Structures are given as structure tokens and as C-alpha cells.
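Task: sequence design from structure.
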């Protein structure tokens, strides 16, 4: 009979799956607005200080783990691009168009991550599919590592989700640049934000329909199949603890 001690067999909590997003995305972005709004720092200083965590995380991944922390590296690149563009001034249309460079940087980072076999948007999608459930977490690992029957289809949908977001953000960038040079400046001041919100809604809706919903069905089916297989073998659930 199997026993579990310490953290082994522990049901993952919501924060376990959200940690990459919290540390690599929310913390740098939150600290930027904190430094700029609460402490009154300028844009350059706020961007610089908010880059400390992603820079450290990226360096740690390269030196200690021999791999690139994709989310941290992307946020670092976005901050560097923003720092560079913060020195651009003068033409108001150029000032509006430069915001598209951030979207394109994120988009290209996402698409490159798919090409490298490590879809970046997975970190944001996984918590909504696994929901802290240990059986679904185990099913996810089997599907992404190729040890489950539906692994190929699951991985294809995982990549598709990131591709959708990459293309949507590239389209948002193109629309922002075109609008900056064809529409009145006053119009683009508010329309730029509408474009970004529209891109995000499109990413959620299209990505959800094409990838997330099918992945959720596959994940549920794999978890149920494994539960049935354990029952057929007369095994207790994976988290059972011996008395």
C-alpha cells in the first residue's frame, strides 16, 4: 500500500499552477505601476526597477537550470523595448504607433516559443483546465509527455492556443500602426485601448473555441480513463494514504 509524506501526493492548490504567471508576469507589471504611480518614478526608472525580477529569473534559468524561463525572458524583452521606445519623442503619430512594438514583441515571443516546442501561453491556460485537481494534473503530464493515447492531438491544440494569441497580437500591432498614420490623433488616443481589449477578447474567444474546449474534453477523458484503469487493477486512488 502506498503512503505519501511531505509534499508528495499533495493536491496542487490554485497558486501552484498560477506561480509562473504571478512571479514572471504579474509581479513585474505590478511593480512597474507601483514604482511609477505610488513612488512617483519616471517611466525609465520604473521600467528599469521592474525588470530586476524577470532579469534575475532569466539569468537563474540559464545558469542554474540550463534553460530559458520563457515568460520571464519575454517580460524582460518587452521592458527593454519599452525602455528604448521611451526615448522616442516628437511626432505624436510615432508616439501612438510605438505602442504596437510592445504587442509585436509579445506576439513574436509567443510564436517563437511554439516553434521551439514550448508554447508560452500554456502557463496562462493550464490553471483553468487543471483547476488544482491532482488527477487532472497527472492526466496533463501524461498528455504533454506523450505517454497517453491522445497526446499528439492534445499537444497540437496546446500549440494552436499560443499560435492564435501570437497572430491576434500581431494583427493588433498592425492595426495600431495603420490607425496611427491614417486616423486623427485624438481618435487613436482612445481607439488604441479599444484595439488592445478587442485583441484580448478575440484571443480568449477564438483560442477557447479552437483549443481550450477540446483540450478540456481530452483532459477529462484521460483522467477518467486512468481512474477506470486503476479501479480495474484494484488500486486505490493516487492520493490515498495508508492508515
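Answer:
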Amino acid at each position: 500500500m502506498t503512503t505519501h509524506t511531505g509534499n508528495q501526493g499533495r493536491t496542487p492548490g490554485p497558486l501552484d499552477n498560477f506561480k509562473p504567471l504571478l512571479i514572471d508576469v504579474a509581479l513585474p507589471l505590478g511593480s512597474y505601476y507601483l514604482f511609477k504611480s505610488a513612488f512617483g518614478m519616471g517611466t525609465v526608472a520604473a521600467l528599469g526597477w521592474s525588470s530586476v525580477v524577470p532579469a534575475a529569473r532569466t539569468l537563474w534559468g540559464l545558469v542554474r537550470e540550463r534553460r530559458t524561463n520563457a515568460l520571464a525572458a519575454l517580460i524582460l524583452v518587452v521592458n527593454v523595448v519599452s525602455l528604448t521606445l521611451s526615448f522616442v519623442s516628437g511626432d505624436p503619430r510615432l508616439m501612438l504607433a510605438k505602442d504596437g512594438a510592445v504587442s509585436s514583441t509579445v506576439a513574436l515571443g509567443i510564436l517563437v516559443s511554439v516553434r521551439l516546442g514550448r508554447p508560452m501561453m500554456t502557463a496562462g491556460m493550464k490553471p483553468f483546465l487543471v483547476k488544482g485537481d491532482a488527477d487532472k494534473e497527472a492526466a496533463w503530464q501524461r498528455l504533454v509527455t506523450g505517454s497517453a493515447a491522445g497526446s499528439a492531438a492534445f499537444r497540437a491544440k496546446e500549440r494552436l492556443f499560443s499560435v492564435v494569441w501570437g497572430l491576434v497580437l500581431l494583427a493588433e500591432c498592425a492595426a495600431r500602426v495603420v490607425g496611427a498614420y491614417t486616423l486623427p490623433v485624438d481618435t487613436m488616443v482612445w481607439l488604441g485601448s479599444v484595439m488592445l481589449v478587442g485583441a484580448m477578447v478575440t484571443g480568449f474567444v477564438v483560442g477557447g473555441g479552437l483549443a481550450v474546449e477540446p483540450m478540456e474534453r481530452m483532459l477529462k477523458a484521460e483522467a477518467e480513463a486512468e481512474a477506470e484503469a486503476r479501479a480495474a487493477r484494484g488500486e486505490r486512488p493516487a492520493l490515498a494514504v495508508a492508515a
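The CA atoms of residues 17 and 127 lie 5 Å apart.
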